[in-house]
Design a protein that fits this description.
heterodimer, A: 642 residues, Glutaredoxin, Rossmann fold, 5 domains, 24 helices, 38% helix, B: 204 residues, Ubiquitin-like (UB roll), two-stranded antiparallel ribbon, globular, disordered C terminus
């Protein structure tokens, strides 16, 4: 590809791309983000390509492999153009029909369309599906329409026009001012005002300045940044380059975990092609501005998402936080001013530059502007990535977009903000999402993880789970975090296993204070949150575990038991055959009995017992009834004739 | 060098530029307890028993005195109910590892810490890092380092290095507030069949 040496050449180049693209032309886009790839979209791509080739349509109908579209629950997701028909859970065998339909304009394939729950009515258009209808996809907007490996695709949707604008028509002060005016806040966890951070760095003295992308996303179940970097790497690069221009940096880093191979691959390719095009490197677009980017692959330590730990790791040392009473924006990598923002924050920058701060602020609450991508996972019907305006209620995100709780279960809580966040109960479902709103509720925005929990979830066990994660991911440098999380985990484990004692909650509160007040970095300071927020809203569950040795959600294995109600059991042998521990005794016409000593409490029997019998009982805090006498176990069935 | 004026425990203190709160307090004869601090080593901020309360522009928060820079007009309190409570709990957490450490027992007496509050832990090490940092910063040998992370973190000598440089040094021994370092060293030497002779010029 030839180097683009001026804004005029960029426009020329863009026009050249547009001339080859007819929006009315028939085409197919297939999601090839990590989630859809895991559901088999690579195989679907192969068969669609083969089908097109076989029919000699490969020159006429283009298959575009895009980044994540968000509806991961129903992947692989395929959309035909220009009619925008959305096919879900597509399999390689569907390729022939899809090609016939899209190329020949025949009737849509009903069985692959979204079916409305309840009515079963089919919805062909992607934008009409409730999951998408209530979203505002700005940052994610292009993800589903461009091939992340193609810089032409990015340029075709207006890519790098924001960079051109700042380099030739804005001073660096104006860029900082615009970002400040937009009130963009860091999407990585801290929520620090991005413009202020840039300004601080811009004003700070230093021989060199650096801009860094934090792509060390490590919250369990969260993958917003992964999908952005995989699906639209040039957007992040463009934002980063604008930031570099604004603060006066000529070197940038992308700190990405190596567990994200596709993100690493796509961003490396993006850097290479951007360089070839003159959009990175020396004298960008002939402006005289130089900027190079290096990808640094992290080895997957959660704590390396913390700014000072990340910078220490960038320097080639063990990724441990260091005291930062001076902001890293002033004294960061190699003690030089360093602006660190996460992937989503950088991705917002080109949009703000192009559309302006007012456009950005159209949505949002007082303290939180723009849109936010959330990773909606857990006990939710539509698992996936959703981008919503700040200020949307949790209720709308979980029920309108997420489709509510599957299996007719009842909503109990939503955990936001990753392991250091907190659980928000049903009573607060009307809460508008925003940095300050979530913090006030005892949780946090974090990077946008949202784990939905139903009535079968034990909140004490949830706290134990996250403390386990944090104790494991603590770097171990400072005592309050290392020793504190370790002890908190031990006490919480005791409570969930029936060894809780009076005074445990007070001790946990004391350890929480020490970790919160005295830890070195944010990991330790926020480590007690999973405990504190569940205690705040679900104190009775803790007390029941400790005082009655009972788990109200019937989830903690050490506190529950399964038995079969002899009056309901029809000796169908389903549970008996499925029990992985061979703990069920019974036979044809012989009522089944669970051997309590052999039972591993996996719950398989409870799940497989046919609902019409519903004979398996799960109990907590009450004695298991004595097994039925041997001679009462035989079921005498009436003969079919009578 | 310009002087910085601040207030520590109600006393006006003049600190030199670049001083930490701990150093400023020491010049005024105010004692702040420490475990991981050593004047020859870079400030570390690991044990957190030196937490003090600072007040700055109406905000107050807890900071580690060994790493926080002395700033003008800062109001510092080295003792309060909250500070004492936090120090006590930290000492108790560390005593679970090293119940016989004289330094910890002295702090336990001062802050009323109960050495049996938490279940005894298998490792004696309190992770102050004095040995690791002394070896790296002063001796430039890096013969002892940290392994693993979080609750599993421990110190360990690198056998190949220890075999050549530790035999004649052992300067870290006297720094250790517990007996963990010696135990680790003994374990390492046990793994090396014979103490190898250090040949002239073989050191790095």
């Amino acid at each position: 590809m030839s180097r683009i040496g001026s804004p005029a050449e960029l426009e020329e180049f863009r026009k050249g791309i547009a001339a080859t693209r007819d929006p009315a032309k028939v085409g197919v886009t297939l999601c090839c983000g990590s989630a859809c790839l895991a559901s088999g979209s690579a195989e679907v791509a192969v068969s669609v390509e083969a089908e097109l080739k076989e029919r000699g349509l490969d020159a006429h109908v283009q298959l575009r492999k895009t980044g994540c579209r968000g509806f991961c629950e129903r992947g692989p997701v395929l959309v035909t153009h220009p009619d925008e028909v959305c096919y879900l859970q597509v399999e390689p065998g569907d390729a022939s029909e899809i090609v016939t339909q899209s190329a020949n304009g025949q009737a849509v394939i009903d069985r692959l369309l979204y079916a409305e729950p309840g009515t079963g009515a089919r919805i062909p258009k992607e934008s009409d599906i409730p999951f998408y209808k209530h979203q505002v996809r700005r940052v994610f907007g292009s993800n589903g329409s461009i091939d992340p490996k193609s810089i032409e695709d990015y340029l075709a949707v207006g890519g790098y026009s924001a960079l051109e604008k700042v380099l030739f028509r804005m001073t660096s002060d104006e860029v900082v001012e615009e970002v400040k005016r937009s009130k963009l806040r860091g999407r990585g966890g801290g929520g620090f005002p991005t413009g202020r951070k840039w300004e601080e760095s811009r004003k700070a003295p230093g021989d060199a300045k650096y801009v860094i992308v934090n792509a060390d996303e490590g919250d369990p179940g969260a993958y917003m940044d992964r999908s952005l970097l995989e699906g639209n790497p040039h957007l992040v690069l463009e934002g980063l380059t604008i930031g570099a221009y604004a603060v006066g940096a000529h070197e940038g880093f992308i700190y990405v975990r190596q567990e994200y191979p596709l993100a690493v691959e796509n961003v490396m390719l993006a850097i290479k092609t951007a360089k070839e095009c003159g959009l990175l490197g020396k004298d960008i677009l002939g402006s005289g501005f130089d900027f190079t980017v290096t990808v640094h692959q992290g080895a997957g330590a959660f704590v390396c998402g913390e700014s000072s730990a990340l910078m220490t790791a960038l320097e080639g040392r063990v990724g441990e936080p260091r005291p930062k009473y001076i902001h890293t924006a002033v004294k960061g990598v190699w003690d030089q001013p360093s602006v660190l923002n996460n992937v989503e924050t950088w991705a917002n920058v080109p949009l703000i530059v192009n559309q302006g701060a007012d456009w950005f602020g159209e949505f949002g609450t007082e303290g939180s502007k723009g849109t936010k991508i959330f990773s909606l996972v857990g006990k939710i019907t539509n698992t996936g990535l959703v981008e919503v305006p700040m200020g949307m209620t949790l209720q709308d995100i979980i029920f309108k977009i997420g489709g509510g709780i599957p299996g007719g279960r009842k909503f109990k809580a939503v955990q936001t903000g990753g392991p250091s966040g907190g659980c928000i109960p049903e009573a607060l479902l009307g809460l508008e999402v925003g940095f300050d709103e979530l913090t006030e509720a005892g949780s946090m925005m974090g990077s946008g993880g949202m784990i939905v929990m139903d009535e079968d979830t034990c909140m004490v066990d949830v706290a134990r789970y996250f403390l386990d994660f944090l104790a494991d991911e603590s770097c171990g440098k400072c005592a309050p975090c290392r020793e504190g999380t370790g002890q908190m985990l031990r006490i919480l484990t005791d409570i969930t296993e029936g060894r809780g004692t009076e005074g445990d909650l007070e001790l946990l509160e004391e350890l929480s204070e020490v970790a919160k007040e005295a830890s070195l970095c944010a990991l330790g300071k926020s480590a007690p949150n999973p405990f504190l927020s569940t205690l705040r809203y679900f104190r009775d569950e803790y007390e029941t575990h400790i005082a009655e040795k009972r788990c109200p959600a019937r989830s903690c294995k050490e506190l529950i038991a399964f038995h079969i109600d002899p009056a309901a059991c029809r000796a169908c042998m389903t549970c008996l055959k499925n029990c992985p521990a061979d703990a069920i005794d019974g036979g044809k016409n012989r009522i089944h009995v669970i051997d309590q000593d052999a039972c591993t409490k996996c719950g398989t029997c409870f799940e497989v017992c046919p609902p019409r019998y519903g004979a398996v009982r799960k109990t907590s805090g009450e004695p298991v009834p004595a097994p039925i006498l041997e001679d009462e176990r035989i079921i005498v069935r009436k003969s079919k004739e009578s | 060098m310009s002087a910085t004026l601040l207030q520590i425990d109600g006393k006006q203190v003049e600190a030199q530029e670049g001083m930490t709160l701990l150093e400023a307090a020491q010049t005024a004869g105010i004692r702040i307890p420490t475990l991981c601090h050593h004047e020859k080593l870079e400030p570390y901020g690991g044990c957190r028993v030196c937490m003090v309360e600072i007040e700055k522009r109406g905000w107050s928060k807890l900071v580690a005195a060994c790493v926080y820079p002395a700033e003008s007009d800062l109001v510092v309190r080295t003792r309060s109910e909250k500070i004492d409570r936090i120090r006590k709990t930290i000492v108790e957490l560390l005593l679970a590892h090293a119940p016989d450490s004289p330094e910890l027992l002295a702090l336990a007496r001062e802050y009323g810490a109960n050495k049996d509050r938490f279940e005894a832990q298998a490792s004696f090490c309190v992770q102050c890092g004095l040995c690791v940092r002394y070896c790296a910063e002063i001796k430039k040998a890096d013969a002892v380092g940290f392994l693993d992370r979080g609750t599993r973190r421990e110190i360990s000598f690198i056998p190949e290095l220890a075999a050549t440089v530790c035999w004649d040094c052992k300067e870290c021994f006297s720094l250790c507030p517990t007996s963990a370092l010696q135990a680790a060293y003994v374990l390492t030497t046990a793994l090396v069949p014979h103490p190898p002779q250090v040949e002239a010029g073989s050191e790095r």
